[in-house]
Design goal:
alpha/beta; Double Stranded RNA Binding Domain; 29% strand; seven-stranded mixed beta sheet
Length: 202
Amino acid sequence: MKKLALLSLTLLAAGCMSFSDVVYRPAEQKTPAHIKKIAVRPFNNKTPQFGLEEKLTLKVIDEFTKNAEYTIVPESEAEGVIVGDITNYIQTAIQYDVNMVTTVYKLTAVVSVSLLDKTENRYLWEEPALTAKKIYSVSTLPGGMTEAQAREDLWSVLARNIVIRTVDGFGSVMSESPNKLPAAPEQEQSSDGAGVPQREGL
């Protein structure tokens, strides 16, 4: 009788362990196989900061080229097109010296980006608020940098995440929650086709 009870407890424990070890993994949602060539449409700059779009566009192209999963071509030759807007660019002073001169800034950039399937004339996915942040000391301090240098770091992060989202699919990177996005009016100002495609989020 004791052996039977011990066997029952062992089986129960094993059953509990197997359930606790189960990890939910959503089905992969990758870019369709017919998309082998991708174009990067120049980003739209919807911020007051001049000249952001060119640097980000070039950085995204460079990141796709280094990744080599897709061939980068002009839009007329592409099966898929990266389409994006720079929606927020905010520099915030977060630390001061004894004279109330800013010594540390936080720089935030937010982009809305989608992948357009030209063959099907629909958007395969959309990330409405991919966000990159950089906290940096002013260039007059040891180890500090300029706003332009900090901005390059933001473009690198965003470009890498756009490529990861395209190559690895849903869940590989995530947009920022709208509740966490910075409110531009309260922040310090920076110193420095053919029909309407249908959207289908993956």
